[in-house]
Every structure is written in C-alpha cells, then in structure tokens.
Amino acid sequence: MPAPKPTPGVDLGRLQVWFASHVAGFEPVEAVQIAGGHSNITVLLTGVDGRHLVLRRPPLHSVLATAHDMGREYRLISALGPTPVPVPLAIASCPDPDVIGAPFYVMEHVEGLVMHDHEAARQLPDARRLDAALSFVDALVELHQADIDEIGLGDLARRDEYIARQLKRWYAQYQQSASDPDVRIDHAHDILAARIPEQQGAAVVHGDFRLGNCIVGPDGTVRAVLDWEVCTLGDPLADVGYVLATWPENEDESGPFPDAPSLVEGFPPRAVLLERYADRTGRDLAPILFYVAFSHFRAACITQGVYARMRGGAQGIAADLEQWRARALASVDLAARYAAAL
User: Cβ distance 148 to 224 under 8 Å?
Assistant: First the structure.
C-alpha cells in the first residue's frame, strides 16, 4: 500500500512529537487537507487507532498581519464551548511556529454534512431541509445571546459603532484594490454611511454565517459552526443581514450565488428565517434591509478586490477570472439596488 501523500504545511513527524507531549492518547499517522488555501487551512488528522481530529493553520502564502490568528480562533471556540452554541471541542493550541511552520490548533472532528452547494444540499433528505434551516437560525440566536463578558470575550474587540467601522474598512480596501472603479459602489457607500441604524446592543458576530460553514447531522440539526476567522464583537443584525443576503430564492434575479444550498427544493424562503430569529430574540428587525444592503456592499468590495488581484496575475485561470468578474458585477448591482431602496 503506498504511503499517504504529504500535506503541504504539515510536517507529520514534527507533529507527532508535539502530540506526544500535548494531546494524550492520539498519535497522528495521516494528515489530509480538507479545506482552505488562501484562507485558513483545515486538515483532517487520522490517528493510529483510526480516530480523527482536525487541525487548523494559516495559509501557506500571503498571510496578513491582522488575519489568520490561530490563537484567536482557538480562544473563540474555547469560550463558546460551554454555551449552547454548537462548536467543535477545542483540544489544544500551539503558538510555536517552529513545529509545522506556523501556529495551529487542534479541535474535535465532527461528523456530518457541510452544504457548500446544490450537490451537497441534495445529500440531506428533503424532509430535513426545513429542520436544517431552522436549526441554522437557532445556532445564530444562541451565538447572539451569549453573554460576552460572562464567557470571557469582553476584550476581544470594540463593541460600538460596528457598521461605521466596517463601512470605512471595506470601502478603503475597495478604493485601494479595484482596477475598474464603479461609481455605484461610491453611491452605495454614501447612502449606507448616512443611514446607519442605531446599534441594538452588542454580540459575538460571526461575520460569515452560512450553511457552508456549518456541519449538519442527518436529522437536520446543526452540530457545529465552523470558520471563526473573521469573528468579532459588534452589531448582531449584521449577521442576520448576511444570512438573508446569502440565502437566494428561486424567484430572485440571477445573483452572485447561483449554487447556493437555499435554492434546492425543501429549503424555506428568507421570510421564514427572519421570523424565526425575531420570535426567538425579540429584536426589532425593522431596519433589516439596511443590513442586507450592507452585506451586499461588503461582498461587492471583497469580490472587486479579488477580481482585481486575479486580473493582475495573482493566480487563477481564465475561467476563474470570468467567474469572479461576473460575481463582482452581480454583487455591485445588488449593493446599488438595495442601497437605493433605503
């Protein structure tokens, strides 16, 4: 039987030495990358006894000084572990970059389905898709109801003026990176900046809360929320707006998420998710369209930047370039339309 192919960014020999003194009873004999690349890398570890754990480390290249903080991710899932928020069990963290070339942490391996697209979503029985959508919202509710100070995350980040700070950040990134400036983004930014709703308290904000970042069991229950890379403190309705913005319906015009799980038969419309969140939190959702507009604006800034880097020769093939161009234009169009409707 051939030896397993080495996984870039994971020195299995050095990792085995580290495990021997930090994680009792688990000796990794195989490491296989299951997600990541330009974002944080997720690696499935198989032990000598056949059990699994998961390792997270930064990407191999283009690591930003303020991103890819493994200690921060580990702190978040450790703090949320005792709460009703479904997260993998945090097992151990290694801040020493000399072990595998970068800091990393290890967490529990959670069995289940990750619904990135239509194909994955169809693996969940039709009868369980509504359950999955409601469990998805319930997980977000639990996150937003976690007491920031009680779970030890009070000093994680600023809590106030979340939207104002986010608008400034993403607009500046767009201005620095866009190779084809679009006046519609400027107009959307100006409208959003002038109409920021009053922030209703502060919560842990995931920042990328979608089905593709959740592990779902065969009964439709969300077993774990993943990818805490951009999590911070701030306005909880930003997460709700993002959920709605990334949950297209079949009646929508063509948008940036043509392969979204929500387009598969059996998943409910956005209104059902919004009603569930409102019923369980009691928050005033009257300004929710602002947060949807903001999510599309943020997506427009991000995708414009990715397209500009790819067009400049950063990486990718022609098909990828055209895909990102189409996605960027669709995001800009949605940002402009939602902002104009405020």
Answer: no
- Judgement on whether residues 206 and 311 belong to the same structural domain of the protein: yes
Residues 102, 145 within the same domain: no
d(CA 61, CA 98): 16
Written as one string, the DSSP assignment of 175-203 is HHH-SS--HHHHHHHHHHHH-PPPP---E
- DSSP assigned state of 242: H
For the chain, percent of residues with pLDDT exceeding 70: 92
The boundaries of the domain holding residue 156 are 118-340
Per-residue tokens: 186: 């400027």
Name the pLDDT band for 317 (thresholds 50, 70, 90).
low
What DSSP designation does 114 have?
Answer: -
- 80 Cβ neighbours under 8 A, 6+ residues apart: 87, 143, 146, 151, 204
What's this model's pTM, rounded to 2 decimal places? 0.93
Query: What's the CA gap between 68 and 326, in Å, rounded?
Result: 28
Yes or no: say if 124 and 216 are a contact pair by the CB < 8 Å rule: yes
Q: DSSP 3-state assignment of 35? A: strand
Cα distance between residue 278 and residue 52, in whole Å: 38
> DSSP state, 106?
E
Question: What is the Cα gyration radius of the chain?
Answer: 20
**CATH number for position 51:** 3.30.200.20
Q: Could you tell me which residues come within 8 angstroms of residue 288 by beta carbon, excluding any fewer than 6 positions away?
A: 237, 240, 241, 244, 274
- State pLDDT tens for residues 1-47: 344 556 778 999 999 999 999 999 999 999 999 875 557 889 999 99
Kindly state whether residues 79 and 137 are assigned to the same domain: no
At residue 2, the pLDDT reads 45
- Measured distance CA(214)–CA(261) in Å, rounded: 12
